[in-house]
């Protein structure tokens, strides 16, 4: 087995809120698991030949387990449904070692954590770390209702409970999160972290950018996306060999490269995780991802072949 892959057993499964279950994963022999940091996620290989990414929501100081939480999404492409219907206590799963595309900015003076729905999972880990290190932060958690909000009892019992504010759509409008006011009042030394449904994240990030927040103060991780990978045909050229690969309208770049015998690692397939990121040496990509920031996309020096396409007839790739 690949050294980056682990076999784990589900030692505990627990309902955390309406439609949300947590899964505690451990080494079958009780050995310590590879370390991780706040914001890390793992790839979980789910029955049905599916792979999905889930954030780790337990403290990084715990080496004996990984804890993830999964929303049984009505719009599921099959992954969350399989986790809820097939994976039980005692099940064995293959997972990746932890990766972190959503780390805390260690040089920041203050931190503002905004979670929407299931996006609370990486924020739990971040809040634990910041509290343990005595670093200033505030956390805001938005959910449709209390019954849909996972881990609110854990947050209420936490030593940092006074730094957490919950907002529920079905309660008094006065307690709902005013994104504009919150971000306008934040100081220039605050770094923002946001995770949750795309609509929530778009609202937060668009507001921050409109208020003049620098891009390097914005940190985010999307859980899922509805990405349009269709478009006209074009070519990609491999810089190392000069080989040209045609990308037809009905294929992604990653798929066309695989058919040509060129394997690019792909994980999410939606331009969320950055696993497949490739340098672009010539040409103009048509960015469809949610991983790169607007500034990074504007440089056109890298793109995600799992979903992005080309505006120019040819892209020369550093492959």
Automatic annotation (TrEMBL):
Top-level EC class: oxidoreductase
Pfam families in the record: DmmA-like_N (PF22290), Fer2 (PF00111)
Highest taxon listed in the record's lineage: Bacteria
FAD-binding FR-type domain mapped to chain residues: 3-105
InterPro entries with a match to the protein in the record: 2Fe-2S_ferredoxin-like_sf, 2Fe-2S_ferredoxin-type, 2Fe2S_fd_BS, Beta-grasp_dom_sf, DmmA-like_N, FAD-bd_FR_type, FNR_nucleotide-bd, MRET
Gene name linked to the record: ophA1_1
Cofactor(s) in the UniProt record: FMN
The entry's keywords: 2Fe-2S, Dioxygenase, Flavoprotein, FMN, Iron, Iron-sulfur, Metal-binding, Oxidoreductase
PANTHER family (alphabetical): CARNITINE MONOOXYGENASE REDUCTASE SUBUNIT, NADH OXIDOREDUCTASE HCR
Organism in which the protein naturally occurs: Cupriavidus laharis
Protein's name in the database: Phthalate dioxygenase reductase
Enzyme Commission no: 1.-.-.-
Gene Ontology terms, MF aspect: dioxygenase activity
PROSITE patterns in the cross-refs: 2FE2S_FER_1, 2FE2S_FER_2, FAD_FR
